[in-house]
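so my prof wants the structure for this chain in the tokens format not the other one, which i didnt know existed until like an hour ago. anyway here's the sequence
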Amino acid sequence: MAEDVPQQYNIIRFSQSPLKDGNGHQSHCEKVVYFKGYDKVAFVEQGSKSLKMCTPDMQPYLEIKDFTQTPLCAEYIDKYSYVAVSCSDLTLSFFDADNGLKLARRIETKTAQLVLCWSEVAQVLFSADHEGRILAWDLTLVKSGMNKVYESGGGDPWRDFVKAVRRRDFSLSCFITRLEELLAPELRQALRQKDPKAAIRGLAARQLSDAFALPLLSADFCAQLLAAARGAREEAEKRQQVTPGLLLSARWYLNKIDGSFTDLFDRLLTDVLRIVDEALFAESHPIAYHQAYCINYEEGRDVSLKAHTDDSDLTVNVFLGHPGFSGSELMLLEPSDRDVACGTPRWKDPTYEGRSVAFRHETVGTAVLHPGDRWHAVEPLTSGSRWNLIIMAMRNDKEWKRTFYEETASHLAEKASWLAAGS
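here's what i got, hopefully its the right format
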């Protein structure tokens, strides 16, 4: 049996339930979560400043009104009998299920926590914010403040002994259960169509004959990638480590930051990018091998990139942030034979005969896709900062391509060691 054939199937069959929600609602329910271990259903109505609960048979149970703004998410922690609730007023509250759901602890957070997830394995409450940070809360420290009395809306300031710490070994897959959650809504919708390739062609904006702009990744996922790359850069600079690129001074390989990125981008390539590639380029061999890394243009760092081609059959260049920078346009070049007769096209020279198209990265998650042999450059950045995800892919038409990217990364690592030894 082939290795890629499923060995086991898990099937859940759904049928319509006679159970009806007879509770009156002030507005539609924005969020609904089942508290496993507490056997309650919690929900938040649009515009409401309370978290309502009912039993699984839709009988009203209790309403927590101790919020000044709308609750964002909730999680039940069976080990401590806590109901944890994140609120848009930048608080994280813990209610004691063994004591009538009275407020036991409230902590001010630096950012609004959009996701809460209790890990039985790690015995840690994970949360994540809109900036892409994944945080970990030690519940033993949270519980240590329970002897204090809190008034409605009150709370503790953010302190080191209770603050969340970034977990670099934490897998993103805990939050991402389906690949489509990573994708831009427009692409997600296109892939659901009867003819997804035609829908993708209709969604893509042609820049040159073989270069397209396409909404590819969700803003939330881009924020996670950006946070991971920036964190890796900060850590490398603290340790005075060198992470060289080829034409730029540095690149940050995602699989070196977090091993879970390897499987994630494998799935992205096989399940999404292959379909996009077939829709836009229609080559005879599919893309099969890839590397993914982040680059940055910023004042005091790399600010431009000379005309070049890539070591790829397909390049996917995704804007991660930040909007508001000046300059740094991606120049897509279509030089004439005369322009490249002596090598690199001098596209700014008055004698340049070819075509050039300036693409400005403005929408987070939008990708520019082009063959690797398409000439391109980056204009000087004049202010701000621009981060991009680069995915380079090879087709499976030649055996040497199978190990090309691993060998490239190994050579760059050797270069980094050599530079570090000489510094």
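also thought this was worth mentioning. The radius of gyration is 25 Å.
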